[in-house]
Write a structure and sequence with these properties.
Blueprint lengths: L9 E5 L3 H12 L4 E5 L2 H11 L3 E5 L1 E2 L2 E2 H10 L6 E5 L4 H9 L4 E4 L4 H16 L9 E4 L2 E4 L4 E4 L2 E3 L3 H12 L7 H9 L8 H15 L9 E4 L3 E4 L2
Parallel strand pairs: 1-2, 1-3, 3-6, 6-7
Antiparallel strand pairs: 4-5, 8-9, 9-10, 10-11, 12-13
Length: 236
């Protein structure tokens, strides 16, 4: 995954509508980002694989498939960059499906450019922002080793491929082993100043995806535990 030390962060836009694509390139570009625009899912996957952009803005409706499949393929290739999905539907199922495919956030059309830029900044900050030097660089969760400075999670020397949001969620829980957090508290602490953009379903989907990667048996979790009626905690 690229770093924020790069001179200008590259944003990949995957959008087939010429008017929308041009508006995104211009609007995001005026904020100082380098923008690359692809009009097909295949082109988006190829660019993300070969050029490693800092963030992907991905439309759900594409001429050669749908954004959900493109998102899934990017994650299967091991790409960990934040993915922001754009959808014309406000259906909760659409949002959940995007998160389950590996997206970090979603935005429903029509949207204001200011909100899109705010989401992009938030995702970049969460994915690449510096951790406080006063906190431990190495954390442990069961048989997992979490290296905060390198943004890696390993088990028995083997690296686990977490998205930036999944990584920050695991780090937060590992910093407070045994402590129970409600979904609202997790939104506030993991998603931070942009908490108003998210809801309980967002947390549930990310916890489920994280369990699929860190648990030996996701159906019987031993690392991230559910406390009925209260929330989640990391096993001690």
């Amino acid at each position: 995954m690229p770093t924020m030390t790069d001179r200008a962060q590259t944003i990949l836009v995957v959008e087939d509508d010429p008017a929308v694509g041009e508006a995104l390139v211009e609007g995001i570009g005026t904020e100082g980002y380098r923008v690359h625009w692809e009009t097909t899912g295949e082109g988006g996957v190829a660019f993300a694989r070969d050029r490693s952009p800092h963030l992907v803005v991905l439309d759900v409706r594409l001429p050669d498939g749908n954004g959900f499949d493109v998102c899934r393929r990017m994650r299967q290739l091991g790409l960990r960059q934040p993915i922001l999905m754009l959808t014309v539907q406000s259906d909760q199922l659409d949002k959940v499906l995007g998160l389950e495919m590996g997206a970090d956030d979603y935005l429903t059309k029509p949207y204001h450019l200011r909100e899109l830029i705010a989401r992009i900044r938030s995702l970049l900050r969460r994915a690449y922002g510096e951790f406080s030097s006063t906190e431990a660089d190495i954390l442990y969760a069961g048989d997992l080793t979490i290296d905060r400075t390198r943004a890696t999670v390993t088990r028995g020397g083997k690296s686990l491929n977490l998205t930036p949001t999944e990584f920050r969620l695991l780090v937060f829980l590992a910093q407070h082993p045994g402590q129970v957090f409600s979904r609202g508290q997790l939104i506030e602490n993991v998603w931070g100043s942009d908490a108003d953009f998210y809801d309980d379903k967002t947390v549930s989907v990310h916890v489920r995806r994280l369990r699929e990667k860190v648990e030996h048996d996701p159906s019987d979790p031993a690392v991230i535990l559910t406390v009925p009626g209260l929330g989640y905690r990391l096993a001690t």
